[in-house]
Amino acid sequence: MYKKFSVSSKLILKIPAISSMKTIKKLTLGSVALGASLSANALSAEPSHAVFLFQATEIGSDVVLTGNGSINTLGLTFNGVGGIGSGTSAAFVGSIQVGSGSILHEYTSGSYAPFGSFGSGGPLGGEEPNSTSGNNVIFSPFAIYVPIGYSSGNPLSGTATFNNATFDSLGWTPGTYTASWGSGANADSATLQIGPATAVPLETDALPIVGSLAFMGAGLWVKKRRKGNTIIK
Q: pLDDT per residue over 136-157, tens digit each?
């Protein structure tokens, strides 16, 4: 016979009568399998990562901005040459840049959705880094800029370092920001991560309880053996 055991409003389990170690073994294996299944479902629900990632990190007394990944320009329209600069970023208008200064190719699209404002910094001229390196990549409110001769999908990597700075002094608000463009096979996106990423909470609160059901069963079996009575009828 069975009695219902309510784990949460989202999950109802039935616990069989525990009369032997064989029953406990079955309960343990069942709990492990259920926990593994719930964990796998939670992991598969995580969003996929963007192809190009800007990562801003406070390291010591500096702020280091890196940009790594690739950009699908097939979902964009080539708009000529522009975007000369060296790592200038303006949070107020949602412009972010890494890499050494050079003349760039400008790409636009009606489907381009920029990062948007990520703070109060640089509303007029932006924040100039103290040093830059690598490929110059810019995401502005109106266009995306890549090095001249860039071939869609090839890897890009650049940095910008702001000495004696913090997110507060730069006017950057920690968080995760996303830009996207294109459609179908040419759909692409980029992520701006300022500070550490926030952990995504699990969809169910049952996992900690499920993991301990085997121990509960073992305890009941030992108590039954000592008292010689029936625990669950």
A: 999 999 999 999 999 999 999 9
